Amino acid sequence: MDDRGTLLQVRDLTAQFNLDGVPSRVVKGISFDIAPGEAVGFVGESGCGKSVTARAIMRLAPEGSSVEWGGRILFRGQDLLTLDEHEMRDMRGRRIAMVFQDPMASLNPVMTVGAQIDDILCRHTGVSRRAARRRTVELLGLVGIHDPALRADDYPHQFSGGMRQRVLIAIAVSCQPDLLIADEPTTALDVTVQAQILRLLMRLRRELGMALMLITHDFGVIAGMVERVYVMHGGEIVEFGEIDALFAGPRHSYTQALLAAVPRIETARRTA
Amino acid sequence: MTNAEPLLRVRDLCVTFPARRGRPPVRAVDQVSFDIEAGRTVGLVGESGSGKTTAGRAILQLQPATGGSVRLLGRELTAMSRAQVRGMRRHMQLVQQNPYSSLHPRMTIAQILAEPLTVHRSVPSQRIAERVAELMTLVGMDPAVVPRYPHEFSGGQRQRIVIARALAVNPDFVVCDEPVSAVDVRTQAQIVDLLHDLQDKLRLSYLFIAHDLAVVRAVAHRVAVMYGGRIVELGDAARVYDSPVHPYTRNLLDAVPIPDPARQRAKLAESSPEPQFRGRDGETGPCVFGEDHAAGGMPAWHEVGPGHGVSCRFWPPGVTPPALKGH
């Protein structure tokens, strides 16, 4: 670790599901750190436990399941796993925020996006509706939505996929969290929109000084976005390191296999 | 192959969705033309809403075309009756994106693979089991697992089964619509390898539709770039990827993340181009290349190299085409 100290310290984190009474451990005692303002990536294939790890920090069980967490998640020295639900609710959104892959599923379809952001601001910062709306318009502008004052009165379905993801990012950064967790934030988006969202995340991280935990299966996405990366496989961290070093010389055979399988735009068709 | 007609010839294919709720009709596919030779792959790339899936479906006659021609093996498909099209289905098949929803959950793999064989009567009933086993081997799976159900398989294995089903009738042409976008990167590489091997072995032609430009590069001989229902650039994969001419193609290629930290960081540090492309429909006078298509009644298409062409539509205002040989 460098001299920035630690924002998040995860130690021996486990996540155990009960599938039809059969316990199944999907995160098997992993440890990692994130420094204030640092960008850290988690890569791996589906089912490797990267999303469950992210959700553990938010203490969110994957939909329709109950999960047993183990280990410690120290956020500014405070163990999130020991907080009661009320304290945790205060933490979520305010100190730690999350952006998911599917922006439509994360928004309320029958409320204007402005009203949804206003609500969050009122709840977390206790400002008046009027002040909240001013801040909402500011936030929508911050994430690159044109005519934010007008668009605030639109419903989610009136936004494109990329614009919806911008709205979600606006919501996530609305209370200036110390840590933004982004779980496959661009996977459902077109490549040109993806590039815009990645640039937006970079800019916000710089401007707001927040740490970023980026979860993705895409080595291209991770390459330009983070300083350090953890490679996950089968609920374990199999390799971690500085991003440049890991790409230049992956040590673990699994990382090597993953990197070798990444399609590259410069590589032509295999000749028959 | 100069006189002979290619395996698939698509000319001026149009699909228009009718006006709805006061909105004007949508031209989802607009005068799309290209050929696919036997044993070759054409990649069709573009963003969501560009019309690539609709084009693929219209070629297979799964979506009525509102204009243009589709000839497969020298036969015009758009003029055929339903029964005739059904007869042509054993020459043309579809492999779709989602290996979870495209297999019937209550049918065993044996039943799934036997169905097309029975429907098309391609093998006598006593030979079906043998053919099913053959198909499993062909896609690199153990024939012993055919009594199982789709949910017992991984995403990659299911995609192999979907491919086996498409190949059951011995087609000449397969439309692969985002065949690897729902699977992990290692599985993706295996499926791409499988599609290559099958093409070599069976001389299949593919129309490979995908939004992932890196995957398309790995499979396609030729690439067509779609934007707003039109093909805006078409050429050999090496030319389109290494020397793209149309600004939209450049825009698309520039946005692809590169798995190289230093280069990808430099890329993200550049400001994001958000060009406003303009359709040039109904515009009079010369196009960006200085030709007047309306006056000459010529298509808005320009050859910029051997087998490499671009449309003069959808150029952002102010962008002038790079100097071109022959213009």
Mean pLDDT over the residues of chain B: 90
Q: Roughly what fraction of the amino acids of chain B lie in strands?
A: 15-25%
Helix segment tally of chain B:
11
Shape call of chain A: globular
The N- to C-terminal Cα distance of chain A equals 48 Å
Helix segment tally of chain A = 10
Mean pLDDT of chain A: 91
**Low-pLDDT regions of chain A:** none
Largest interface: A-B, 38 and 47 residues
Q: Note the overall shape of chain B.
A: globular
Strand content of chain A: 25-35%
Alpha-carbon distance between the two ends of chain B: 28 Å
Task: Write structural notes for this entry.
The complex is a heterodimer of chains A (272) and B (327). By secondary structure, chain A is an alpha/beta fold. Chain A has a single domain, classed as P-loop containing nucleotide triphosphate hydrolases (Rossmann fold, 3-Layer(aba) Sandwich). Chain A contains 10 helices and 10 strands. Chain A has a 6-stranded mixed β-sheet, with helices on both faces. In chain A, helix 7 (191-208) links the parallel strand 7 and strand 8 (211-216). With 327 residues, chain B is of the alpha/beta class. Chain B has helices spanning 52-59, 82-88, 109-119, 128-138, 155-167, 185-202, 213-219, 237-242, 247-255, 261-269, 293-296; strands at 8-17, 26-36, 41-45, 67-72, 75-76, 92-95, 173-177, 205-210, 222-227, 230-236, 301-305, 308-311. In chain B, helix 3 (109-119) packs across helix 4 (128-138), helix 3 (109-119) runs parallel beside helix 5 (155-167) and helix 5 (155-167) runs parallel beside helix 6. The longest helix of chain B is centred in the middle third of the chain and has 18 residues, at 185-202. The A-B interface holds A 45-46, 161, 190-196, 198-199, 202, 217-221, 223-225, 243-244, 247, 257-259, 261-270, 272 and B 41, 47-48, 155, 184-186, 188-189, 192-193, 196, 199-200, 211-215, 217-221, 237-238, 241, 251-265, 267-268, 271-272, 274.
